[in-house]
Design brief:
Elements (H helix, E strand, L loop, with lengths): L1 E9 L1 H13 L5 E5 L28 H5 L2 E5 L2 E5 L4 E4 L4 E10 L2 E3 L12 E3 L4 H13 L2 E5 L3 H10 L6 E5 L12 H13 L2 E4 L4 E6 L3 E6 L4 E3 L2 E4 L3 E3 L2 H5 L24 E3 L6 E2 L6 E2 L4 H14 L13 E6 L2 E7 L2 H6 L4 E9 L11 E9 L5 E8 L3 H13 L4 H5 L17 H15 L1
Parallel strand pairs: 1-2, 1-6, 2-3, 6-17, 8-15, 9-10, 9-15, 10-11
Antiparallel strand pairs: 4-5, 5-6, 7-16, 12-13, 13-14, 18-19, 20-21, 21-24, 22-23, 23-24
Helix pairs in contact: 1-7
The structure holds flavin-adenine dinucleotide.
Length: about 450
């Protein structure tokens, strides 16, 4: 029987947990059991349908494992014998471990809509071969319907329209696309960017049936309307992939995710850790269960898990939820709690919003306008969240907001924030949107 000090089951988060373990414990042997022959960069999956043009450009290279001296077995783990610390693979191979990490990820959510099993209805599975087949069908399609207007559905819609003469319709149950993550003004701007790319968007509508014989021909909405479709993509979220963990007797919690403590150690077995989409998450703000599934969270947890395998090194402060997306050339991003979420939870808040070009002056080449909003708790003046739209720098600006949230910065901290600025690279220091949005909050706070 093969043996390793640390055995990891998984893909992207698994690789990260392995690298973190090697960094902290260079003397320990690490072995990754991975059911995928090739691991895709999950976040760039929509882009193989347009911008990237081919699957081969969207692969996490195995050289990352070699350079970190992580052994790889390609195969599916089918059993974990905890008393004897042995993992069995589908081909009968067995591997012994001292510590085991579950990073088995998530599977796409496929709701029981009548007709969902019809040919040419695809979920967003992260498997290379599956997505290659979807790509071929997308290239032949004339009428694509995307069910779900979250960031994955919107990115797919945008990419499916690139260089293709195809009708694309997004159907969203809520009044706005992106509504679970962003405030209305950004949702509306994103919808309008997607419409400008030639995509139809139908909101406040539920798909009740997928019509056709063996193959999809249309989707039927609750209003009775039928939308022609020869291909359907389901962008409805994901659920933790934890059957193996359950069979191994590990306790599952919220949405059947593996229960872990703040060190990513399972509550059931001190020698088994879990990280990524399969692990249970709690909110940074109040410790309540969080259903957020993001690669950024998965890799942070993986770094924590890998570091804590043989001693307690890192602590998980909970999920802030930071995300960004790009629709038809305009970027949208959010971190923490949106204004809508804060008001729904009954928080007393104060909101500041500022706009500025992301260069100074605006006439510098490649300049884009930024629209940024910050949400502070009224009593403590602590930053709860932020949203923004803008050009490419949006992706890093939202990460600055996340850092401010993580360190519980107040209005006053951000008003006195010292930023580096450059005409070609940043907004002017006079109208720097992060700072100016906080400045908007100072006067009303004084008066209340
Ligand atoms: C289309 C799309 C776009 C996204 N875009 C973004 C984005 O822009 N930003 C962002 O932060 N997040 C994004 N996400 C979310 C992100 O992809 C996930 O949060 C991330 O992939 C989670 O990583 P993970 O390693 O935990 O799980 P997964 O990526 O699901 O990997 C789990 C791996 O474990 C393997 N596995 C499962 N069971 C076994 C077993 N028994 N034995 C061996 N191996 C096993 C699976 O085959 C899989 O390779 C996106 C997701 C999708 C689908």
């Amino acid at each position: 029987m093969k043996k390793a000090d640390v055995v990891i089951l998984g893909g992207m988060a698994g690789i990260n947990a392995g690298i973190s373990c090697r960094r902290h414990y260079p003397d320990k042997s690490v072995l990754l059991i991975r059911e995928q022959a090739t691991v895709l960069v999950p976040c760039a999956i929509p882009y193989v349908f347009g911008t990237l043009g081919e699957m081969g450009k969207n692969v996490i290279p195995d050289s990352l494992l070699q350079s970190n001296e992580i052994e790889l077995i390609k195969g599916s783990a089918t059993n974990v014998d905890r008393p004897n610390r042995v993992v069995t693979l589908a081909d009968g191979q067995t591997v012994g471990y001292e510590k085991l990490v579950f990073a088995t990820g998530s599977l796409p959510l496929v709701p029981p809509i009548p007709g969902i099993e019809k040919e040419n209805v695809f979920s967003v599975d992260k498997k290379y071969e599956y997505l290659s087949a979807v790509r071929e069908e997308v290239n032949k399609a004339k009428d694509i319907v995307i069910i779900g207007g979250g960031f994955i559905g919107m990115e797919f819609a945008d990419e499916c329209r690139k260089d293709r003469d195809v009708n694309v319709t997004v159907i969203e149950l809520l009044p706005h696309c992106l509504q679970l993550a962003m405030d209305d003004e950004y949702c509306e701007e994103a919808e309008s960017a997607l419409r400008n790319a030639g995509v139809d968007i139908i909101t406040s509508e539920k798909v009740v049936e997928i019509l056709g014989n063996d193959r999809v021909a249309a989707v039927k909405l609750a209003s009775g309307k039928e939308i022609k479709a020869d291909l359907v993509i389901l962008g409805l979220g994901a659920v933790p992939n934890t059957n193996l963990a359950k069979e191994a007797g590990l306790e599952l919690g919220f949405r059947n995710a593996i229960r872990v403590n703040r060190h990513m150690q399972t509550l059931t077995d001190p020698d088994i850790f879990a990280c990524g989409d399969c692990a249970e998450r709690v909110s940074f703000f109040d410790g309540s269960p969080s259903g957020v599934m993001l690669a950024s969270v998965a890799t942070a947890e993986a770094r924590i898990a890998g570091a804590n395998l043989f001693s307690r090194t890192h602590y998980n402060k909970g999920t802030i939820s930071v995300f960004s997306t790009m629709i038809n050339g305009r970027a949208f991003a959010a971190a923490g709690i949106s204004e809508r979420q804060a008001r729904a939870a009954g928080c007393e808040i104060i909101v500041g919003r500022a706009t500025a070009p992301d260069t100074h002056p605006a006439g510098m080449p490649g300049s884009s306008p930024i629209d940024l909003k910050l949400i502070f708790a009224k009593d403590t003046r602590v930053l709860l969240g932020g949203g923004l739209s803008g050009g490419k720098s949006t992706g890093e600006k939202v990460n600055v907001i996340s850092a401010c949230i993580l360190h519980r910065m107040t209005v006053d901290d951000i008003v006195t924030f010292q930023m580096g600025t450059h005409p070609a690279l940043t907004p002017s220091p006079i109208v720097y949107p992060l700072v100016n949005a906080a400045c908007q909050c100072v006067t009303p706070l004084k008066g209340t």
